[in-house]
Amino acid sequence: MGNYFDLIGSFSIGFILYVLTIWTYKYGIKNFQNKVIKEDYFITPTDFLFILLSLFYYDKLFLLVLTFLGFNLGGMFYSYFIKRKITDFIFIFLNSITIFTPLFFLSFLISLFFDFNDVLNIKNNWLYILKMLLVFMGYIIFNKTLTIFIKELFNFLVNRKSFIEFLSVLIKRINDNFLGYLELILFSQAILAFIFFIFFLQKNYFNCLIILLIVFSIYYIDKILFDLYSVYDKTIEMVLKILEEYDFNTLEHSKRVAFIAKELAMHVGLSHEEVSSIELAAKLHDIGKLDVPSFILNKKSRLTNFEYKLITFHPIISAQISQGILSKEELAFIKYHHLYPNIENRKITYKDVPLGARIITIADIYDALRSKRSYKQTLSHEEVIKEMSKDLLKDVIDPYLFIKFTEIYDKIKDLYETTGN
Q1: Hey, is 411 helix, strand or coil?
Q2: pTM for the full predicted model
Q3: DSSP letter string over 300-331?
Q4: How many whole angstroms separate alpha carbon 234 and alpha carbon 218?
Q5: 3 state DSSP class of 32
Q6: Which residue of 67, 168, 200, 413 pairs with 14 in a disulfide if CB–CB is 3.0 to 4.6 A?
Q7: In which element (H, E) is residue 175 found?
Q8: Could you tell me the CA-to-CA distances from 218 to 25, 140, 186, 189 in Å, in that order?
Q9: Among candidates 370, 386, 157, 409, which has minimal Cα distance to 263?
Q10: 349, 395 in Cβ contact below 8 A?
């Protein structure tokens, strides 16, 4: 009878864990001040429970399998009866694979290297503690590698990229900034789960309660910090709203440039953090035009030398306005998205500016040529590419990025086909 209770209990635990994961979603630790390196997943208080499960089931892997099945059933129940989306089933299964496969790996390592019979002497056995720390580090590395692999494999199958591209992106993603903020938090959860497990075996339930309070406090405090950080996003929205009131065309241009820059940055295999930085800088790249009279921006006739000179200062002004909002690197993306000589008081080429600025330059030139302006009509995609090819000879555009840009037309064409541009 006891075995039946274990089977039903393990299955039920998996179901409950999915419900708890959804319930604690708002407390998940995500991208905070670009400190998060592993952008493919977020962690919640339930990660502590998952690791704890591996410790309790280290010698009962079959029960862990039942928990895995219960977790998937919970996901299917939530998807079908709450969200009414059957298509989420594949995502739920892949997500559960990325969660439970490392847990199986962790349980296997624990069963291989540890014996918890003598729990009273564990705290005095430094070799034992060191082995546990190494096991948890192996779990975190395996967890990250598997998660990135599954996500990139999914992108590979959906986007039909070549196998060589898939391998190069996979290696770059795994190699770039391998351990970060999320890994540190997850490691701390593993340590706390281990301490909880030892206290539980020693029947020291009061200390177990203290550990639980510490775990949930970490996530609650982080949520408060994340909410404060959201003020940052609202500040950017406010700045863009001011730009909209001043010149709607400039705002729409900035949105399109940000979208194109994001797609190009993703296409060349930049990390999530790099893509986000470039997209953010692109949104604000023309904010300095607030300092240019609107009659000049919308002038239909040829600009005078003074008016042109005034416009050439807008990248510098954009960077100045964005100080305190963007990082130093992002400010450089804005400052150098045009290669005006007055920016450095000398002639500069694409080789003198950061990669992010080169990407925004291509997006900016393309949209400026493709869109209708007060002083010009729209050009077709083919005409724009022909015009931009001339800038290659002037060292304004990065040739490699330009070739990559021509490969993403299918992703950006709707920006112009739906607007009639």
Answers
A1: helix
A2: 0.55
A3: -SPPPHHHHHHHTTHHHHHHHHTBTTB-HHHH
A4: 25
A5: coil
A6: 67
A7: helix 163-175
A8: 14, 19, 11, 9
A9: 409
A10: yes
Mean pLDDT of the chain: 77
Return the pLDDT at 381. Answer: 85
pLDDT 10s digits, 341-396? 656 666 778 888 889 999 999 998 898 888 876 666 778 888 888 888 887 777 78
Amino acid identity for residue 84 in this structure: R
d(CA 43, CA 177): 18
The predicted structure's pLDDT at residue 1:
46
Phi then psi for residue 35, to 5 deg, are -85, -15
Task: List the alpha helices (DSSP H) in 78-201.
Answer: 88-113, 126-159, 163-175, 181-201
Q: How far is CA 180 from CA 17, 37, 131, 190, in A?
A: 26, 5, 22, 15
What are residue 300's DSSP bridge partners? none
For residue 347 the two structure tokens come to: 């002639």
Whats the size of the chain, residue-wise? 421
Model confidence at 34: pLDDT above 60? no
Q: Which of 61, 165, 388, 275 is nearest to 379 (CA)?
A: 388
Round to whole Å and give the CA distance between 191 and 140. 12
Residue 363: which residues within 8 A CB-CB, separation 6 or more? 256, 257, 258, 260, 261, 264, 282
Q: Is pLDDT above 80 for 92? A: no
Give the residue among 326, 323, 295 at the shortest CA–CA distance from 311: 295
Task: Check whether 192 has a pLDDT greater than 80.
Answer: yes
Q: Work out the number of other CB atoms within 10 angstroms of the CB of residue 121.
A: 8
Please tell me the least confidently modeled range out of 130-139, 181-190, 310-319, 354-363. 181-190
Nearest Cα residue to 350 out of 392, 317, 288: 392
